[in-house]
Automatic annotation (TrEMBL):
Molecular function terms from GO: ATP binding; kinase activity
NCBIfam families tied to this protein: HK_morpho_MacS (NF047322)
Keyword Transferase: yes
Name recorded for this polypeptide: ATP-binding protein
Keywords linked to the UniProt accession: ATP-binding, Kinase, Membrane, Nucleotide-binding, Transferase, Transmembrane, Transmembrane helix, Two-component regulatory system
Length: 428
């Protein structure tokens, strides 16, 4: 008889193992050792200047109200005063231009405040409209009036374009926009002789530079905050993975070590190797428990003693050899990789030796074994087969540290790695 598909087979029982909780993963979520793997999701608002943009739109709407008020007063004015000649030669066209000003201000204000469209082309359009409205003064206003009064859109409203340029492209561009619009306005009014005494230029220049600097400061602060948040998320993710590995992989390795020791023979050798990997994995987890900063200092000698397995001869200075924590972590990982290769490939009777030297300007690690060595062409063959341990795990890590790894080996000559790293850390 065949087994019923809904019933457990021989030696099986229904339900979860005794003494273990049931862990169910959400649909699409990976499971590790029966546990749902939670992922750390970090959301960082990429636009730190958004509050600046929204605050600038309050200024924009205030400038629109001012421009409409100035238009009402100017369209009723006479040039010269008391002459009975209207200041505006084309008042209807001037009102059409004011309508354009109001419509554009509403559209651009919504675009900037709520990111309804890309900002760079919007700012370019705003610059064009502002220039056209400023130049239109000579079409609708008599020279007798605009020679002594503000141009049509008013300096107050022109400032909006300067603010937009500064927020988008920084203080240099903002200052240049301020100077450019002030020169345009003074040119239309034929007031270049008042360049030093007129307040237009210093006001627009100051606004452009100040807003640009403020935008750059908050953007830089946002970048630093994003880095800190991502580091915190990475730390939590490492801690979570460490717990998963401890509850799963380490327990299996520990069981293999104990059972291998009980069985002896080939199983005993497998148990010994499992024990070494268990110790290496525990060391790796303890290394990842802290995130070393740029200025953190760690004793390389102590770290090497923790990762070098029993039976390997280690020699080093009597005192501590301090290096940045990240450098120590990488060097310990390189040494562990080399010693793993010795255990796998150097032969059953091979002995390994590790020498640590502190030469002041650089630290030198020598890892040597008296095993069978590496045959000529073997490394190139392994790399061609996609086994990149030597080229990436060892040489790649040393290159990232600004150091170098030199290999000397040959058939029946053993293998010697010389690892050199400058105290300054990664070069360039």
């Amino acid at each position: 008889m065949g087994e019923h598909p809904d019933r457990p087979g021989v030696g099986q029982r229904e339900g979860p193992p005794l003494g273990h909780a049931v862990h169910r993963a959400a649909p699409g979520r990976p499971v590790l050792y029966g546990r749902s793997v939670e992922r750390v999701v970090v959301h960082i608002d990429p636009d730190a200047t958004l509050p600046f943009w929204r605050g600038a739109q309050v200024f924009r709407f205030a400038s629109v109200a001012y421009a409409i008020g100035a238009q009402i007063v100017s369209v009723r004015a006479q040039a010269p005063p008391g002459s009975g000649i209207p200041a505006y030669s084309h008042p209807v066209i001037s009102w059409a231009l004011i309508a354009l000003l109001v419509i554009w201000s509403g559209v651009s204000g919504l675009v900037y405040a709520f990111e309804l469209a890309p900002r760079p082309p919007t700012v370019v359009i705003e610059l064009v409209i502002t220039v056209l409205l400023t130049v239109s003064t000579v079409w609708v206003v008599r020279p007798e009036y605009y020679h002594h009064h503000q141009s049509l859109p008013s300096t107050f409203w022109i400032t909006n374009a300067v603010v937009s340029v500064a927020l988008l492209w920084g203080p240099a561009a903002g200052g240049a926009a301020g100077v450019g619009f002030s020169l345009l306005s003074l040119g239309i009014e034929e007031q270049f002789h008042n360049l030093v005494t007129d307040a237009t230029t210093p006001i627009l220049l100051t606004v452009g530079v100040t807003m640009g600097v403020g935008a750059r400061i908050v953007s830089r602060a946002q970048q630093e905050l994003s880095t800190a948040v991502r580091m915190q998320a990475a730390t939590k993710e490492r801690e979570r993975l460490a717990r998963e590995v401890h509850d799963g992989t380490l327990q299996v390795l520990a069981l293999m070590r104990r059972r291998g020791a009980d069985l002896g023979g080939a199983a005993g050798e497998l148990g010994r190797l499992a024990g070494e990997q268990e110790q290496a994995l525990r060391t790796l987890i303890s290394e990842q428990a802290t995130v070393p900063g740029v200025d953190d200092s760690t004793d390389l000698r102590t770290q090497l003693q923790a990762v070098i397995p029993a039976g390997v001869n280690f020699s080093g200075p009597a005192g501590a050899v301090h290096l940045p924590g990240s450098v120590v972590t990488e060097l310990a990982a390189v040494v562990r990789t080399i010693l793993d290769n010795v255990a796998r490939h150097a032969g059953p009777d091979a002995q390994a030796f590790v020498l640590l030297e502190d030469l002041g300007g650089e630290v030198v690690l020598t890892v040597r074994d008296d095993g069978v060595g590496i045959p000529d062409g073997r490394l190139a063959e392994a790399e061609a087969q996609g086994r990149m341990g030597v080229s990436k795990s060892i040489r790649g890590r040393m290159a990232d540290l600004g150091g170098e790894a030199v290999l000397e080996t040959g058939p029946d000559l053993g293998t010697e790695w010389e690892l050199r790293v400058p105290r300054a850390g990664k070069a360039g």
